[in-house]
Design a protein that fits this description.
It is built from twelve helices and twelve strands. With 307 residues, it is α/β, with parallel strands linked by helices. The chain has three domains: 87 residues, Winged helix-like DNA-binding domain superfamily/Winged helix DNA-binding domain (Arc Repressor Mutant, subunit A, Orthogonal Bundle), CATH 1.10.10; 101 residues, Periplasmic binding protein-like II (D-Maltodextrin-Binding Protein, domain 2), CATH 3.40.190.10; 91 residues, Periplasmic binding protein-like II (D-Maltodextrin-Binding Protein, domain 2, 3-Layer(aba) Sandwich), CATH 3.40.190.10. The strands form three sheets. It has a five-stranded mixed beta sheet. A five-stranded mixed beta sheet has the order 9-8-10-7-11. A two-stranded antiparallel ribbon has the order 1-2. Helix 2 packs across helix 3, helix 2 packs across helix 5 and helix 3 packs across helix 4. The protein is rod-shaped.
């Protein structure tokens, strides 16, 4: 290798030489490589200076390889073909060997039903892969994906730019959560009974307006506003507050607090979507695709709470 460097062999000249050999002319090689004829004409001379022997000689209107040139082409061609194949073929992704880190944005209603089974799957199938999980909301997800602060998101989303891909994972209705020892709502509460209660709401805006106020135009007696669903079970437990939550989140609260109850809200509504989102630039990224497919399988297999 030191001898080659001393002779100033430019390896970029080898594809030019192979093209000249295949075409039999400088003009044909130039057209094939999208180079100027002068650039191609100079290549054999530069190679001659590097290896110390003539590489091509003129023959009629074209050129032919010398013995040294033919040997050089024969030696170089398989290596050049291998380089081209390596560049064109996607790299093989080995989940068991990869140590890639992915950044996952999760709505607080998604982390409990999604994250535990996802981590168990990765422990078995990609034990060296790591996740950095961050809270995400509908109003912040676009910026987080656009700046690549996160690679994937599972959340509720409204309008999305064309640069973000979407796959619906879960459709979820809203239900009332309450402690039947202190609140009398029954299995199918009326609107009057529902609005007569004191409520705790989740408001990402930090105010007293939630889904009932914004979507149905009803005003509740809101006694407390929090910015996360994580403490809702503890807040409702043992008190007179009623919470309105996505049904997808309810089984995890009831598993810890089986004495609580849920009832449908007294307002007809279409189920809302919880989506898997990612930048379209990561469509073919093998690690991102591997985790996306795992998340979709977890959702499709029913490891999410049923409606």
């Amino acid at each position: 290798m030191n001898v080659l460097h001393t002779r100033s062999l430019d390896l970029n000249l080898l594809p030019v030489l192979v093209a000249v050999a295949d075409c039999g002319s400088v003009t044909g090689a130039a057209a094939r490589l999208y180079l100027t004829q002068s650039a191609v004409s100079a290549a054999p001379g530069r190679l001659r200076s590097a290896v110390g022997e003539p590489i091509v000689i003129r023959h009629g209107r074209g050129v032919v390889l010398t013995e040294r040139g033919a040997r050089l082409v024969a030696e170089a061609r398989p290596h050049l073909d291998a380089i081209v194949q390596a560049a064109l073929q996607p790299a093989r992704f080995d989940p068991m060997a990869t140590d890639v880190t992915l950044r996952l944005g999760l709505a607080d209603i998604a982390d409990e039903w999604l994250l535990p089974p996802l981590l168990r799957f990765l422990e078995a199938e990609a034990p060296r892969m790591r996740l950095v999980c961050s809270p995400i909301q509908s109003r912040t997800v676009n910026e987080a994906l656009a700046t690549r602060r996160i690679d994937l998101a599972v959340t509720v989303a409204d309008e999305l730019p064309a640069s973000v891909a979407r796959r619906t994972l879960v459709k979820s209705n809203f239900v009332c959560l309450f402690d039947p020892r202190f609140v009398r709502l029954g299995a199918r509460p009326t609107e009057r009974a529902y609005l007569a209660q004191d409520h705790v709401i989740v408001s990402y805006n930090g105010d007293f307006r939630g889904v009932i106020e914004e979507t149905f135009g009803r005003e509740r007696r809101v006694r407390c506003s929090v910015q996360s669903f994580s403490a809702i079970g503890a807040i409702v437990d043992g008190g007179r507050l009623v919470a309105t939550i996505p049904v997808v989140f309810a089984p995890h609260i009831l598993q810890l607090r089986p004495h609580l109850r849920i009832s449908p809200i007294p307002f007809p509504h279409e189920p809302g979507d919880i989506d898997l989102l990612w930048p379209t630039a990561l469509d073919v990224d093998p690690a991102c695709r591997f985790v996306r497919e795992a998340i979709i399988r977890i959702a499709d297999a029913g490891k999410k709470p049923s409606r």
